[in-house]
Amino acid sequence: MPRSALSIGTMDNQLKELRMLAGKAENRRTETGIPRVAMVQGKIPEHMLAAIYDPMINLILQGSKTMTVGSQTFRYDPATYFVMSIDLPAVGSVHPSTSGEPYLAVSLTLDPAVLSTLFADLPKPVSRTDNGLGFSVASVTPELMDAWVRMLRLMGDPAAIAALAPVYEREIIFRVLQGPHGWMLREIAAPDTAMARVNLAIQWIRQDFAEPIGVERLAERASMSVSAFHRHFKAVTNLSPLQYQKRVRLLQARTLMVADAKSVMAAAFEVGYESATQFSRDYVRVFGLPPSQDANRILGNTKATSK
Prior knowledge:
The protein is an alpha+beta fold and 307 residues long. The chain folds into two domains: 3-189, Regulatory protein AraC (Jelly Rolls, Sandwich), CATH 2.60.120.280; 191-307, Orthogonal Bundle (Arc Repressor Mutant, subunit A). The protein contains 13 helices and ten strands. A six-stranded antiparallel sheet has the order 1-2-9-4-7-10, with helices on one face. Helix 1 packs parallel to helix 4, helix 6 (182-189) crosses helix 7 and helix 10 crosses helix 11.
């Protein structure tokens, strides 16, 4: 039998086992008992999919997902994984499989300390070539899938988690490093790369997203010229610094209206807008509806789904 056929057969079996292991996931982030490993299944409330996503490796097991960051949309299906090396304001949507099975996925949140210790044990790469984005989709390999299988099997063997989960976590990250987007993980963990500096700026924006930001000040703190900072920030996030802050504000406002029942005015002012008119204008550009209509629609859909 050709090697490719063997690989396909192996991956099919691995995927079936992963689906079985993650079968108890709920339609929200479901903890597995394994540090930084979570799973999710089914139709996820819309406002939870439009959020600031933490750096992670996300593996699709069933169904599909689309993720829009800035003006760029990615779609990923079973046996593909999504790498985010930075905090990203994104809008996602999940879909069942063509035969009707619910969306199912597992994720590993990236820990900078784990990345740093792993990289210290590996030889430095000779070079890297990529387009600069801090997120992308890739096809999974049998080796990466096998590491995920062994990781999720630990849910049935809690006594082994402390000893084995760190080993499997390092292996998952190592397998991603061997793939087409492994450079992103190296860049974000290195202390003086453009991506690492952009990541620091992202943390500053997130900490004070309701306050006016000065791009000049951010560039100075990142030790870059304004033009270089703006160029690298856009290359990594697909957003300008001001667009990034605006997306963070709008996502937070949406959560305030849907989850905390805040009024449009209260939500707008809480996230830093001084004009409700400007807030509504920006909101429509991103979400397609005025704030109150969008919040009522999401709440109506949530109630209908829960019945």
